[in-house]
TrEMBL record:
Domain Glutamyl/glutaminyl-tRNA synthetase class Ib catalytic residues, every copy: 3-300
Gene for this chain: gltX
Protein known as: Glutamate--tRNA ligase
Family stated for the protein in its record: Belongs to the class-I aminoacyl-tRNA synthetase family. Glutamate--tRNA ligase type 1 subfamily.
Naturally occurring in which organism (per UniProt): Micromonospora tulbaghiae
Cofactors (names): Zn(2+)
């Protein structure tokens, strides 16, 4: 039997990091089993779906290595409405479902507000289909439903506690629970790997598989992803969109490595491992069922490690979208013709060790490409204290006299200028740095001045000096 898994997102918002984690787990499992990964877009909630969310899912999957063309699909759930209706009809005709005209108020009037679920009032009334009548599944009165779950063992549900749930609404449209089962069935899905949130649906869905006469899949409910307060990650409160991480400059390799650590760890005391090792070592039955903490700080540090491990040429290439402002990435503050690739290449190795996400490249190098530096006023106030004017005057004279404009000579020169004033190098650097780059922190100063060049450095020092008059 060929293993067939599916990833079945609903295109109702940005692509959630928890979804990306489930997608990767499905992807790896399929690969390990020589199986097939199916992508199914569950777009039946017409009010909440938008085509751009579907496109966002496809491109985000592509980004983390689940490339278009390398999986089956995408299929769209909305194309199979006929099959969903036919399955509902079959269940009705086989006596496994019945029509019900109770309103919520009717049910509550009979059972009291405390009781949850449907009381079975219409079970044996033999109602015909009709406008406003929902179709309910007749759950067995006895026995139990055992869910075989690779992550959770065998969660067992008593059938008598499962209400007669609705499978088609009053307007005849099948609900998600049924559509999801019918699609999995017709797509030959053998393993359903999805988030824990769906576990409560599972006994109901398994009853539907049984009633439709098909052997249910093996399930794997992977842990919910939570924030530092142990709250389920929410798109209103937390940064959950994979696209947001991508646009901020997380590397796809770092991201997918980190996502796979949510609830699982590779062998040994390692966390940063090549993708090939994860593909080989990952086991669904090793996934920890407890909630997995999505630690943004750790991810950031992780990404920094990945950035530092890149060959410089790859780092230069990886920065390009932030230097040019491609696609959905915020454009840099300089004009395209102000960008100088050679100057960037010269400082890239210095920047590579200092940034944790690629978007941070921009404030580190903008001084090289803007006609005038972007002055941070707080930094200016801090650096341009008493003595700054005198120091700048002396630095200008000394720099003008330099024969060779290189980092080493610049450093020795400013060191001497500072020493004459009883200032350590760090103190002497501050006004120069702010005058030239606009900031108090950044790339190593003297290398920066070397790349910026004599004329532009001196122009900026003089401009700062004028401002101090
Ligand atoms: N469309 C469902 C969701 O996005 C997935 C259901 C499933 O994986 O079975 O939550």
């Amino acid at each position: 039997m060929t293993v067939r898994v599916r990833f079945a997102p609903s295109p109702t918002g940005m692509f959630h990091v928890g979804g990306a984690r489930s997608a990767l787990q499905n992807w790896i499992f399929a690969k390990q089993q020589g199986g097939v990964f199916v992508l199914r877009i569950e777009d039946t909630d017409a009010a909440r779906n938008r085509p751009e969310w579907t496109e966002g899912i496809l491109s985000a999957l592509d980004w983390i290595g689940i490339a278009r063309g390398s999986y089956e699909g995408p299929y769209f759930q909305s194309s199979y409405a006929g099959e969903h209706r036919a399955a509902a009809q079959r269940l009705y005709e086989g006596g496994r479902a019945y029509y019900c005209d109770c309103t919520r108020e009717d049910v509550q009037a009979r059972t009291g507000p405390q009781q949850r679920g449907y009381d079975g009032f219409c079970r044996d009334r033999g109602l015909e289909p009709g406008e406003g009548r929902a179709l309910r599944f007749r759950t067995p009165d006895e026995g139990e439903t055992v869910v075989v779950d690779l992550v959770r063992g065998e969660p067992t549900f008593e059938n008598k506690l499962i209400e007669d749930f609705v499978i088609a609404r009053g307007d005849g449209s099948p609900v998600f629970l049924l559509a999801n089962v019918v699609d999995d069935m017709s797509m030959g899905i053998t393993h359903v790997i999805r988030a824990e949130e769906h576990l409560p649906n599972t006994p109901k869905q398994q009853l539907l598989w049984d009633a439709l006469g098909v052997k249910p899949p093996v399930w794997a409910h992977v842990p919910v992803v939570v924030n530092e307060k142990r709250q389920k990650l929410s798109k209103r409160r937390d940064k959950v969109a994979l696209e947001a991480y991508r646009d901020e400059g997380y590397l796809a390799d770092a991201m997918r490595n980190y996502l796979m650590l949510l609830g699982w760890a590779p062998s040994g005391d390692r966390e940063i491992v090549p993708w090939s090792v994860i593909e080989e070592e990952f086991r669904l039955d090793e996934v920890n069922p407890s909630p997995a903490f999505f630690d943004e700080k750790k991810l950031r540090a992780f990404n920094g490690d990945y950035i530092r491990a890149l060959p410089v040429a790859d780092f230069v290439e990886a920065c390009r979208p932030w230097l040019t402002g491609t696609g959905t990435i915020v454009p840099p503050p300089w004009q395209p013709d102000e960008f100088d690739p050679a100057a960037f290449a010269a400082v890239a190795p210095l920047a590579q060790t200092r940034i944790a996400v690629l978007s941070e490249i921009v404030p580190n190098v903008d001084f090289l490409f803007l006609a005038d530096p972007l002055i941070d006023e707080a930094a200016w106030a801090k650096a341009m204290k008493e003595g700054a004017a005198d120091l700048l005057d002396a630095a200008i004279v000394a720099f003008e006299a330099l024969e060779s404009w290189d980092a080493e000579s610049l450093k020795a020169t400013l060191e001497a200028v500072g020493a004459e004033r009883g200032l350590k190098l760090g103190k002497a650097q501050a006004p120069v740095r702010v005058a030239v780059t606009g900031r108090t922190v950044g790339l190593p100063l003297f290398e920066s001045l070397e790349v910026l060049g004599r004329d532009r450095t001196l122009t900026r020092l003089r401009a700062a000096r004028v401002r101090l008059v």
